[in-house]
Amino acid sequence: MTLLKDILSFNETFVENKEFEKFTTTKFPNKRVVVLTCMDTRLVELVTEAMNFKNGDVKIVRNAGAIVNHPFGSIMRSLLVAVYQLQADEVLIIGHHDCGMSSLSSDAMFAAMKERGVTQEIIDTLRHAGINVDKWLEGFDSVEESVIHSVNLVKSHPLMVPDIPVHGLVIDPATGKLDLVIDGYENAAVL
């Protein structure tokens, strides 16, 4: 049986047994917060448990490295939607130690892509089209600096509420310990 068939088979039983009922909530976060964190598998449940959040308490946005790279990309749009449409009044950006984006190199990514069928011609075409794929595929050296960068980008965004607290934290995926990088309450009105 394939993974997809396993998922669909389990889901059929899940629905029949009404196991979904324990997750019933509204689309609005009870704690009025949106969290941007990494897609790392170790954080799927750890991030919310380590902060005492339950299903329905927060909006979660995930990507590789918990990075806001572009002021008008999908991550920033998701944060703005959470604030303006879904009643989030605070933003938490949570990076983590031992992140796969730490020191990720575009060379390593291109090598892996080529092993799976992407040709050098495609990579060169993107480069010649003015797309800086090398920079786009680079990681970061310091998770704290990456969190600070993302907090500053969100905080200074022209469409973000100027006095919204944007907090920056780093979590240890082995223990769940949170380290404060930026206290958004101290910087709420400062750009």
TrEMBL record:
Pfam families: Pro_CA. SUPFAM superfamilies: beta-carbonic anhydrase, cab (SSF53056). Its EC number is 4.2.1.1. It comes from the Bacteria. Keywords: Metal-binding, Zinc. Belongs to the beta-class carbonic anhydrase family. PANTHER family: CARBON DISULFIDE HYDROLASE (PTHR43175:SF3), CARBONIC ANHYDRASE (PTHR43175). This is carbonic anhydrase. It comes from Domibacillus mangrovi.
